[in-house]
């Protein structure tokens, strides 16, 4: 008797799509902002040439990337807590997401 082959790709794809739609709904509720002056100052600390200029578009992009990282870390930490049947996200949950975020796998 041959083992039954079950195609779970459609179910997995549906589950991933549901997760993405759920995350997008949550993302729309976030009002996280970063002060552009602070971001500009942080970027300037890394510029050794005083002639370097930082455009508003560059500051805005860095701000959006920072927001994406904060939101992604929050969502991942919340999922960890939820998977463990907890309603409180701890510092350890957020710290646990950092190695994943270093690879920036959510941009792929």
UniProtKB/TrEMBL annotation:
Subunit structure: Heterodimer with CENPX, sometimes called MHF; this interaction stabilizes both partners. MHF heterodimers can assemble to form tetrameric structures. MHF also coassemble with CENPT-CENPW heterodimers at centromeres to form the tetrameric CENP-T-W-S-X complex. Forms a discrete complex with FANCM and CENPX, called FANCM-MHF; this interaction, probably mediated by direct binding between CENPS and FANCM, leads to synergistic activation of double-stranded DNA binding and strongly stimulates FANCM-mediated DNA remodeling.
Protein name as catalogued: Centromere protein X
UniProt-listed Gene3D superfamilies: 6.10.130.30
Record flagged with keyword Transmembrane helix: no
One Gene Ontology term of the molecular function aspect: protein heterodimerization activity
Ranges in a coiled coil: none
Any one GO cellular component localisation term in the record: FANCM-MHF complex
Source species of the chain: Acanthoscelides obtectus (Bean weevil)
């Amino acid at each position: 008797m041959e083992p039954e082959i079950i195609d779970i790709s459609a179910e997995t794809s549906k589950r991933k799509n549901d997760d993405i739609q759920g995350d997008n709904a949550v993302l729309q509720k976030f009002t996280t902002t970063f002060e552009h002056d602070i971001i500009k100052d942080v970027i300037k600390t890394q510029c050794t040439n005083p002639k370097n200029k930082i455009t508003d578009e560059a500051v805005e992009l860095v701000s959006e990337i920072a927001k994406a990282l904060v939101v992604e870390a929050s969502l991942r930490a919340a999922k960890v807590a939820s998977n463990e049947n907890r309603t409180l996200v701890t510092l350890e949950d957020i710290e646990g997401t950092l190695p994943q975020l270093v690879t920036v796998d959510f941009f792929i």
